[in-house]
Amino acid sequence: MAEPYTDAPAHLRDELRRVWLRVEYQIRRGWARGTVARTDEDDAVVRPGDIGRLFEAAQQDHTRTNKDDAGAGEILTRWLALHHTIEARIEASREARTGIPLIELARTFELNPRQWATLMFALMPEVDPNLVTAYRHLARDPSCRGLDGRLLAELVYDTPESRAQLARDLAPSSPLMYFRLLEIPGQQESLLYRRIRTATRLAHMLDGAALTLDPELAEIAVLRTGTAEGSFPWTALEHAQAALHTSDVVLAVQGQRGVGKRLLLQIAAAQWGRKVLLIDGRRIVEQPPTVQHSMVRALMREAILLDAIPVVPDVDDITTSVGDQTELPGFMSIMLAEWKGPFAITINRERMPRIHQRPLVHLTLEVPTLGTRVGLWQNAVESLTETDATALAEKFAIPGGVIVAASLAAGAGRLPGQPAPDAPQLVRAVGEQLHQRIQRLGKRLDTPHDLEDVVVEDDVRDALVEIVAAVRERRTVREQWGLRGAHGISVLFSGSPGVGKTMSGTVIAKQLGLEIYEVDLSQVVSKWLGESEKNLSDLFDAAEPGHVVLLFNEADSLFGKRTADVKSSNDRYANLETNYLLARLERFNGLAILTTNLSGAIDQAFKRRFTYDVFFSFPSPELRAELWKRTLPKRARDEKIDFAALAERFELSGGFIKVACERAAYLANSGGTMITEQLLRHTVERMYRERGKVSASGPLE
Q1: What is the pLDDT of residues 211-220, one digit of tens each?
Q2: Which of 690, 689, 683, 684 is nearest to 668 (CA)?
Q3: For the domain 451-616, what is the CATH superfamily, name and number?
Q4: Which top CATH class is 215-364?
Q5: Quick check: 207 and 8 in contact, CB under 8 A?
Q6: Among the four 221, 330, 346, 564, which has the fewest Cβ within 10 Å?
């Protein structure tokens, strides 16, 4: 009975010796046949005496022979004896499950003996560079830098019957090439002269250390292993475990960013002793198709070697829209078609890509419940009191990933001995984590005004007060009273420009103690199909916890009427985006305010879904007089100004009144005078002329 290998170096030494004996045998045969120079005369490749010394060093003795066969027969006998010993020890090692990396490699990829020999002849020069000199002598080629087709035919495929097998073993479908165990650059040259080298990845397996991800793939993949902690519904975890235990389906885990989709997959995979290989699809799609194909093969090799389940996170970031369908990128189609094991993806948005290679198992992860969020806060910051943890959990309906990121950000740079971050610091940290995702598509507005500063009709003021109350009480009404409906509040402000719609939005935000972000529609709306939906999804997800107010100014450009007469794919997709927005507004957990100057341009289907539809009428003369009085500072204006007369003479909205007061103030200050009624009239009349008005009458637009 042969003894199994107990460590990788012992096996490596035997494989190296087996390679050397085989090379020496072929060279000595060449000497005997006269096909390889044997004299000590100058040789164009390497002197025979030098190659003889290499053989002696490889055998670790100084035995020389003068037989007619140049010693080839003796070397063959020794090679056969060593060959049978190694094969017996390899078989014993497999039965004993010693876990020697190279032995496991052959088993994992089901390499036949000649494929294994090919791999060793390509790999061993990485262990002993002197082999390159021996290869050069055997090939009679001073430019030889390692194994090539000529040497392989002589060393491994050395019979007429085996030559056909050489072509098959180096074909793209062979496991050696398919999984990128070997690389053969130089596609334009004959295979006989192309260098055959092993993937750099195999050199990392020689010392027998625990396998890790190939460093060359570190930019496009991350390996997650070991146990992990997370709080998930048992049904979701159970379904994920079942889906990752079969090769018949694709598991798709859907939920907003930070909800723990990757963590769920890691925990589910660990149930079966498997790791998770997270693949960065965005990096891959940036490469040419031929490079993508090569990357896929390398990733499949790593998944097999590491016993990992491939996972492509954030698939909706790399999908493309074709008509009504969302299509996967090409590299994923290849992987799904060729990978035979479990496979998973994660999705942040609502639209599910079309997957036809396998049936789909769909799981949705929601934001953790209030009680779970309290526990997550206490786990992230151990010094946090239950009261503070509860307050944070109530204030922010955020997933665990955001909680962890905020706790790390709040404690970053803290020196040893300094106290852990308190609740106010954590509130700021959460805001920073969430706001940075909103700032790409919107800008934060200042909130300097109070409700008393808004000059509007009584009905509008009452509506603003009611909206503030609705936002404050909505969770109690939904959760404790059981009233059904949308969790968030959507509001439509319509009216002429300058009547106070944006200002009213900032006042509501200040009353609620929230930040308000004005959405930049030029950043949201994209000429590329599907991009507008992605941008809006990111925006709503970032604002979902209800910590900010979203303000869509001039929203009729995005939330307008759906196209009834569909004449092109653009019309059809515009309708799809409108339908998406309808559904997304209903599910939004915060406060969304949409403003429009053209109330009739908003789709009626949208209007039915607004919790509040507030119309800001053009200010009456009485309100205009009040606006003039409030806008002009007392210390800068003439006491004789007749505000009622100004309001009656000029039909201006609050926005234009503000502009007129600012322009008059600049002129008065430059002249060292007070702001007079005459200066105000002169300024307003010039504003009418600038806008093409013949006379200063009627509303200014």
Answers
A1: 889 999 999 9
A2: 683
A3: P-loop containing nucleotide triphosphate hydrolases (3.40.50.300)
A4: alpha beta
A5: yes
A6: 564
